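Homework help thread (please don't just give me the answer)

Our assignment gives two proteins as sequence + structure token strings and asks us to describe the second one. The first is just a warm-up. Here they are:
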Amino acid sequence: MHGGADQGGSERGGPEGGGFESGRPESGGADRGRPETASADRGRPESGGADRGRPERGGFDRGRGGSERGRSERGGRDRGGSDRGGRERGGPPRGRDAVDPARQAAYDAVAAVHRDDAYANLVLPGMLRDRDVRGRDAAFATELTYGTLRSRGTIDAVLTVAAGREVDRIDPPARDALRLGVYQILYTRVPPHAAVSSTVDLVKAVAPGASGFANAVLREVASRDLDAWIEQVAPPAETDPVGHLSLAYSHPQWIVRAFQEALGGSVDETTRLLIEDNQAPGVTLCVRPGRADAVELAEEIGGAPGAFSPYAVYLPGGAPGDLAVIRDGRAHVQDEGSQLVAAALADAPIDGTDERWLDLCAGPGGKAGLLAALAAQRGAHLTAVEVTEHRAKLVSQAVAGFPATVLHTDGRDVGKDPDLPEEGFDRVLVDAPCTGLGALRRRPEARWRRQPSDLPPLTRLQRELLTAALRAVRPGGLVGYVTCSPHTVETHVSVTEGTRRSDIAVDFVDARPLLPAGMPGLGTGPTVQLWPHRHGTDAMFLAVLRRTS
């Protein structure tokens, strides 16, 4: 399976955000996710100012119940003399009745991720909606869920010491409840006594026999702060920098190594990236040229125009699906980096005809939607290819009303499918399936699911799609190769190997001038790597190739 990705939680399955396929899990090895972020460029504190990635926005200072509004509004007594949980007036809370709905929803979502391989961005919103958890309570549940999943590596290291046993030896229901408790104690401003008490209540509900054990473990965790725990559980930075960063910022070691290599070996920059990776991303809209203007739309919804993309609008909050601009097709949810790489291909100078555009891996449709809108303004026609039927339908929705044709076929079938002729297109986008390491902030569980063994089948598919794109483009035409991963095997190696095996002559086009003037940190070219900590975008890679014969 292959198909493109944009924000939305993923275009290939991302987390906290909306989009065409808000986080649908990718099949075929791609697992990317992408909704948005803000960085120092967008007026947020510098990444380096975060204390080990501790959330600054989640200043929840709740007591044991965790509900800012109080139980009378959501869990209060009804006219019949009992609360919604069915307790008689004056009776002590029992089981799940003792757990506030925000923490219970967070526990159920985390348990589903670990027990059922669920995706948090898919299961949590439904839980909150069904249980009528709203406002700050919903925000608290979201922070607990995503923060606990992101920080699992560090949390488990702390739990191992505090419990005196390997985490795998703790009963799963108690283990997931303890993870939520540790997150509250070490990463939020919930008072430690409240975090301990509320988590013990949760353990009593889900693993009654483990409440005494949980109380002892959590009190041990609360005996020191995060920095003190990091000093104890992480190897020294001087002797094992990768191991230290892995434990301090909760990323698998192989991912830390991949990031450090892509950043030229810089430990400082790698640290900044890991910190930014642990921040909850915001949501960015992409206005569709010809249907809306970014500045006007920002004023309409109370947002802000993007820092770099002329089509980007930063959403101030709320669910993007509730916006009229999404429902009426004037905009869609898409990471600013995804907008930039798609627009770069569309804006690159070209000799000869410029009427036939191709998106070879289009699902679920974010980049196709932007390209189709641009094609409409320039007298071009977009062909969008998607191999999976349900994603092809999403692409059709994304390009509705624009000069575009959607093909439900395999992008590698160039020359075999009559609708995909060789040398039949002027511009071709290959938004290749990848590990999604550039969008880990959107998929809180993805960093623990991805493995180095995922790389060989993905890189083989990337090379095959790139060679298909080079066959599809006419001499003098352009191919844009894009991944949402900075791993050098998926970027430079895939491009080098793909072009070498194609036997088609190409030149690299310097992609830096194709991005907005003034963008910092674009490197030495000709390819471009965007970064969360430098640009506030997902870590999108772009190579632009011109076929010369």
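The one we have to describe:
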Amino acid sequence: MSYFSFHPGNKSSGKGKKAKGSVRKAFSDWIIENHGEDYTKTLQKQRSQVQKVGLIQEQMFKADDSEKKPLIGIIGGGFAGMYAGLILQSLGLEFEIFEASDRVGGRIDTWYSSEYDPESKENKGLYGEVGGMRIPQFSNDMLPVQHLALSLNYVLERNGLEDKMLRWRKFYYNSDFQRLRFNNMKAPIFAPEANTNSMNFGEAQGGDLPEVWVTEKTDENGNKFLPINVILDKVNGPFIEAINKSFETGFAKLMRFDNYSMWAYLTNVFTLADMEEYYDPKMGAPCENLSFNIASYLETVNVGTGMYSVSFVEMVIAVYDWDGSKNSYDLEDPNIYMVTMNNGMQHFPDACRTVLNLENGVTADDGNLAQVLIGMKKGQNNEYGYSPPNLTKDAEPPSSVPPADPKGTANTDKNPSKKKERVFMNHKVTQAIYDESLFDKNGGMRLVMDHTTKDGKKESVEKEYPYVISTLPNGAYLSGQEKTNFFDDLSFSKARALRECNYMPAFKAFVTFKKQFWKDLGNRQYETGLGVSASDRSNRQIVYPSYGYDADKGVLQVYSWAQDAERMGALTDEERVNECLKGIQFMYPEVDIYEHYAGYHPEVTTKTWFWDQHAGGGAFALFNPGQFKNLYPTLLTPEFKGALNIAGECCSVHHGWIVGALDSAYNSVNNILEQMNATKHLVKMKAIWGQLTAPDVAGNVKK
């Protein structure tokens, strides 16, 4: 669920390409090592006690699967909860997952029009992604998401469930025909014009920027540009360059500014002298900072109203995520490569649930082969390659990407596993209570939940576990129950972290048109996507579909964040759609878009989403200044002598991405296995799933 949409006019930093490896992992490790003293001390204490080994060996590791008792209770059926379950399943450890709603996936959720039909040419494209919708294809940090999908496929194929297997298709993020229109420009422009078009921000056009910033210039290579559009390259460049030279010194340099928001850094730290070769005395004295109006311009064209209030560190690290969208096998390739799930992202969590409810899941051979095929692990030739078999034709890598060289092939012999229900729907956990008397006074967690039965009746359910992993968004810990809290007796630091961790509002809408008027305009290739268009209206972005080109009908998705999202969300459903229609018409003044609009029919032709009761008051975590140093280690720290682990994308450095949920789940399982002193299981977990961004895997925490 990426949130940034950098203006096509801004250059990607060419200073220092990302080294092979995980920048995000190095970032996480650096924070823990330098600012995670309480985290490391707590883990050392918990692991030195090794309180529950005898209990685990006696009750949880029995040879007869039918006698095994659940070791871990998992709250939430999003990707963090299900990934934790899939790891445990692969290790032969029992668990149970409780999901409050009637679907799995959490903030991965596809809206399907009630007219959607995957077999119909006209209706197969009538859907859109309410939640996460794309991942960078070759990013080293993001590869575990593709690894998971491929590993699931092996299990599904062995069980004769080919219809549930997962395929990636190309997500078209950008094109030369995506439109930009700001400040009541007479007409939109196309992306290639953005380098040299002031978009009415200059004083001469009625805006507020001095003309020196929006006057066309030519660099030493003959490239034309506006000075305003090279600022972010100068802001990010020194940090990117430093990090690529040395993770440790680069992060130390970056973290000096962790207490600054992006806005504060631009207007209080960055100076005109930092423009270097682009500096012009007409801009002001070299010691001056950027003005309010310049910061406003950068926020407006790059993200959205109010988003520069978040951490400067978040914004700089985000540059790496977008560099990860490039071809890491060919640094000269300028194209962006992203993928999305064929026929909707909802198929992904549904496949997870299907496998979790089988007795046997992902095997060591499955996980190892998948790691090689998607480039997490070197092949027989001692080189990285990329050739997963679950790509549609449009998502196949360019010729500069070498194929993987795996040893052996997947075991696809039909060998259906017995079913074993582990994912329980319509089970809303309302209390998670630590009780020292449980499990022979070793302590454990008691979960209290409301279960809605198939006939609509409500019943109360209680369960007890030595360990619990809770994966809810932080706002969802306000249970809304009479007289009882979700958690009681949390440590001061944990309660504060859950309360203060910043979440970003987001708004999405899906509007159906009887004719895809957008595909017929411009000199555009028929079988490729348009990408994303942007304006300064509150609807902000129009995301064009990456599918369904051969049909007349199509769905445009509108996407915005922060204050823009809050204002859209405050309207009624129909009013939101009306605003979206006005925004789309603003981008297409030469077409009467209402002539092609399919009408306001909720769940049939339209769908809007702000946030719901399961999202807990925000779409994804996005840290405020200081929260990386002061909250991130605390979010990772287990509570109640290790009995409770908090997970979810907020408990990672990958905010707003699926892989953040996976990382947090991996770390939680790792913490539990370490406390159990389950060395063989730890080795097996790494062999199957690789080494994700789990801080103490790197050796920062010593027992």
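TA reply:
I won't write it for you, but here's a hint about the kind of observation we're looking for: The longest strand covers residues 427-435.
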